[in-house]
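Case study: Fatty acyl-CoA reductase.
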Amino acid sequence: MGETLNGVSGLDIDAEKQIAEDKLNQLQAQGASPQAITQAMKDLGIQRANTYGWPNGYVFTKAMAEMLVGHLKGNISTVIVRPTIVTSTYKEPFSGWAEGVRTIDSLAVGYGKGKLQCFLGDLKAVIDVIPADMVVNAMIVAMVAHGNQPSDAIYQVGSSLSNPLRNGNLQDFGFRYFSSKPWINKEGKPVKVGKMRVLENMNSFHRYMAFRYLFPLKGLELANTAFCRSFQDVYSDMNRKINFVMRLVEIYRPYLFFKGIFDDTNTEKLRMAARESGKEMDLFYFDPKSIDWDDYFMNIHLPGIVKYIFK
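Here is what the predicted structure looks like once written out:
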């Protein structure tokens, strides 16, 4: 309870909850718009998370939840399941189902719609993803395994150890898919994509953004914006693209060069125990080694993103 990633003392979950409530009440009293409130609360979450060494509010609140589970468990059987990046379903309830834009899906949406032409990261680095139905199955099997006995188990549900996928694979899958099946925009025209340019460090990324977007944008600002409607449209479109890319980089910066591999040895032991018990593992499948990533992304995940998220 209260242990932090950077060693800074003073983390108090009740105090953090009060800080969030006070900020929200303040914004509402000021008559801030729902959009402004959402953004301000996200910014506060990042600020509070950074104070104690976490990169954002999402992982900060997950860490605090695990602290509470550990503190309050008593004699209750406790299981913590930690999925990595959760992607669309592999099989159930049907292949490719997803709901809402999250994690790498936002990159796919931006790229397929022509808004994202460059990004940042290490193409050789492993990116740990796992389909949603495998996460659910792992949770069900873990509950059965530990339901009637005291336990204090942690299961990493991911693929980086047993079936690693690399950032370069995602770049390749995206280019191949949207080249052969381009997104049709609201004007009814196919959006042509090139292979996404991936910069290998922040300095090269900032240089690229400056020469490719920021300098031309500044030139448009200095020009006479009363020229014509199309002139203003070019400016607005370029400005939106810049803001979109910069926001994504800010969100994903802590993970873009992450070198860690999540050890799923405990989860593998759970799979082995389930098989030995005679349970129907074809029904409760959660083995990432069974995934052919090329087939999954080209025939399941990306088509699912287009079908259930793009529209």
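For the exam, be able to explain this: The two ends are 43 Å apart (CA to CA).
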